[in-house]
Amino acid sequence: MNTRPVALKQLLRLAALDQLIRKGCHDLDCFKTKKLPYYDSEAPDNEHYPDRAELCKVLGCAEKTFHRDMAVARNKYKAIIRFSRKHWGYYYLDFPGKTLESVLINPNDILALEIAKQSVSQYSRTPLKNQIQKILDCEMIEMKKLFPSAKLSLDGCLTLVPIPAPPLEEEVWREMLRGLRDRKSVKIVYDPGWPAQEGSERGHFTINPYHMANLEGDWYVIADRVDPDKAKHDNCNKALNMARIKSAQVQSSSFCVPRSFNAANLLSHTLGRFVSDKKLEEVRIRFSNDIRALVKDRKFHPRQTVKELKNGDIVLSFKVSAAGVWPFFHVVKFVLSFGRHATVLAPKKLKDCVKEELRLTAKNYK
Hints:
Blueprint: H1 8-23, H2 28-32, H3 52-59, H4 63-76, E1 81-84, E2 89-92, H5 100-104, H6 107-119, H7 128-146, H8 170-182, E3 184-190, E4 203-215, E5 218-226, E6 238-241, E7 245-254, H9 263-267, E8 280-287, H10 292-295, E9 305-308, E10 314-321, H11 329-336, E11 342-346, H12 348-363
Antiparallel strand pairs: 1-2, 3-4, 3-7, 4-5, 5-6, 8-10, 8-11, 9-10
Helix pairs in contact: 1-4, 1-7, 11-12
């Protein structure tokens, strides 16, 4: 039997179950209002033994749920609860010094909830922020009701600095989520933000959204562009920055996600914000021993490998796509961010890109 608590509601029932067996079911309003007082370790002076039907009624749960909660209390939290055939009800065989609620609360749970509250800042530019904040606030209120004596706030002790990102239009966000959920095509107006180039997306067109991903703070929708002149779409998996979508409208036409599409596999070849699994090439970059501490234990790419050389240098290897209007754009930016301490070993095309970028950059300082 699975005895793992899976929700705050179950924790609430477990704490109430413990208290009701201690004191009996005479104080029903206490549980119904979720104002659960902290009882001391002295044995109750009444002789009431609540039975299963009575407990189910007060807890507001079915018999199966009651038996599952009882198993959690006994097996996971070692509550020595027995059933008296003489009194036809439940009681503590060995009255514990601590109430069950005092062992249900875990400092790691509080930390996780507090971090979750702080992480909402990552969604500050999306309509998700208020929705998530509302849910977490409700959870915190319930926790405070459940554990009135516990310190549930770590205010001033934790800060998560969000990555700056442009705001998203609420209508665009809502329509894109609806298209993803219902597998409906979405007509959009897209502005890439730079002059028109061959292969770039811009203007009015319709897409089939397959997946949404947050890449370095920016939200992208991975989709195929629908070409009305073709019987089939192009299956090219374009990643469109949602901040650049000026309007979106769900269409009546449905689509099926191709079996070949695998979001996890696609994103595992991503460095920076460029998403593609076409024309994959292995990149090898050597970092000097002077900055090995900054590189050795860092995760720059989902599928990277790290090799240490005898002289202390580090060779980082991973595969990325060489497709797109600006091949290796994010890789070049990554290499240059380490200055003279990073040297491209392969491929040659990436070497040439870095050389050309350095040549053009040097002109700015003449």
